[in-house]
Structures are given as C-alpha cells and as structure tokens.
Write a structure and sequence with these properties.
Helices cover 38% and strands 23% of the residues. The protein is α/β, with parallel strands linked by helices. 30% of the residues are buried.
Length: 287
C-alpha cells in the first residue's frame, strides 16, 4: 500500500521536472528516488511515468494520481496543522452570542482576522435577544457575548465596556420631514414610530402616538421605508441601506451612543482563540 512519503516524492519529481532534480532537492541519491517511484508503481499496479523518453513524463494514470496526490497531501497538511493547533490549547469550537444590532462592519473585520489566525476553530455566531446573552454565557451555551448595556446588571458573568453603538433617527427618503429646513424633536410625534425592541435605551420608548414594534432587524428596515414612518436606527444600518436617510433634528447635533458590553463567564479557563477574541474585542466596535 502506498504511503504519504511516496506521494510526496511523486509530487516533487513532477514539480522539479526530473528524478535527479527531485533527488537533489531531497538530498538523496537519484537511485533512492527512482526506487521510491518504482515501488509506488508496484503498489498501485499502474505505470506512473513513461520512461521511453529522455525525461520521464506522466502517463494518463500518472496525471490523475498526481492531481489526487496534491489534494491528499494538502489535506494531510491541514490535519497536521489542526492537531498542532489543538495540542497548543486552541479550541475546536467557539460560540459568540450577540445582539443583532452589533453585527457591524468593524465586528466582521475582527471575525475575518479570527479566521486567519484560527482556521481550524469552528465558530458559531448566534444572534440572541439582548437580555438572554448573559444567560447563555453563564449557562455555558456561549463562550463570549456582546450586548447593549441594560438597566439590570446580569449575574454570574463578568462585563466589560468595549465600545459604543452610534444611533440616529432614520426614515425613507420621501419622508415629509426631509423637505423641511428645520426639524424639532416634537414633530416626530405626528408620524408612526417603528420601535426596535432589542435596542435597550432610556429614549428608545413609545415616543409617538402611533407605534409599531418589532424584534427583527430586517423587518425594522422594511417598515422604515413605508410612508411617514421613522425610528431610532444604528448608523451602520442607515449608511448601508440606500433607501434610508438620517433625519437631522435641530436640538440633536450628535448621534446617541449605546454602551456595548462584552460578557464572559466567571473563573473559566479560556483557550487561545477565546483569549484572542477577548483582547481584540476592545477594537471590535470602533466608530
């Protein structure tokens, strides 16, 4: 039966262009390389190289074997790297529980860095209701969580302020208020408010007499595009939705800022991936 070392010799012979060049690359005698290929042909029961020419060339079977050898050796390398990674203390899986509003471009940038650094860690990203995030972390259902700061301090977890979520008032481009040069906050009460229930803040309350509530971010964006509707919306949502536009209220010169907390369990040993994400999270929500 063939082994990986034989397949590595085959690949090297093809890439180097000859048995002698492969032998020099390996630091072996050419006879050793020729013997290795001959034994592979015996084990496989096929002719891999056509030796009728001055420089041996792959037969049709040899070409297929070469391509499959490349794939198999690549997989073997991945397995070797994965085993080394796990033995060094890198987790095989990691779960993030996060408020849907916090899936910002900066968050995804950090996640992309995570992929490069921990390619063999299976990552689970679960969007969870804000008040349930700390519960999932404390119960071990999530390794780390990211939530908006609420009125009640969660128990059995450790919190850390890692950033802010800028929020403004948004509405469709054809909203009547966009045509005004000056807009007072009280004027919003005349229009239907779309209230996102998963955004905890003292001012994210029933402000208008006509209100629609939703806990789904996609639904929030669709409702805001309807006639005469408005809502408090994270800046990254408004900026990435061409159908929405910020309503500039005279008395509000800057965005509202919601505190973002990192949530981890108490007294739990963290692996390398968790430790890296914990440290990197301080830049995860940069404005």
């Amino acid at each position: 039966m063939f082994n990986l070392q034989q397949l590595e010799t085959l690949v090297l012979c093809v890439e180097c262009g000859s048995f002698s060049a492969a032998a020099r690359k390996l630091g072996k005698a050419q006879s050793a390389v020729s013997t290795a290929i001959a034994n592979l042909e015996i084990d496989a029961g096929i002719e891999i190289f056509d030796r009728s020419t001055r420089i041996p060339t792959l037969t049709p079977h040899g070409k297929r074997l070469y391509i499959q050898s490349l794939n198999l050796l690549s997989q073997a390398k991945d397995i070797e790297t994965m085993i080394h990674s796990f033995s060094a203390g890198v987790e095989d899986t990691l779960t993030i529980a996060i408020n849907e509003l916090l899936l910002t471009p900066a968050f995804y940038k950090v996640i992309n860095e995570f992929y490069q650094r921990f390619p063999h860690t299976e990552l689970h990203i679960n969007t969870v209701e804000n008040e349930e995030i700390s519960v999932q972390v404390s119960e071990g259902k999530a390794s780390i969580g990211f939530m908006l700061c609420g009125d009640i301090l969660p128990k059995d977890v450790e919190l850390g302020l890692v950033g802010y979520l800028p929020v403004t008032i948004a509405a469709a481009h054809n909203h009547p208020l966009h045509s005004q040069k000056s807009i007072q906050l009280q004027e919003l009460k005349s229009f239907r408010q779309i209230l996102f229930t998963n955004m905890h803040s003292p001012w994210n309350i029933h402000f208008s007499s006509s209100v629609t509530t939703t806990n789904n971010l996609s639904t929030l964006q669709s409702l805001l595009q309807l006639d005469h509707c408005w809502g408090f919306t994270p800046n990254h949502i408004t900026q990435n939705n061409a159908s929405l536009k910020v309503i500039d209220v005279d008395s509000e010169e800057k965005s509202w800022l919601l505190h973002i907390d990192r949530v981890v369990g108490k007294n739990k040993n963290a692996g390398q991936a968790h430790a890296w994400l914990y440290q990197r999270s301080v830049t995860m929500f940069e404005m």
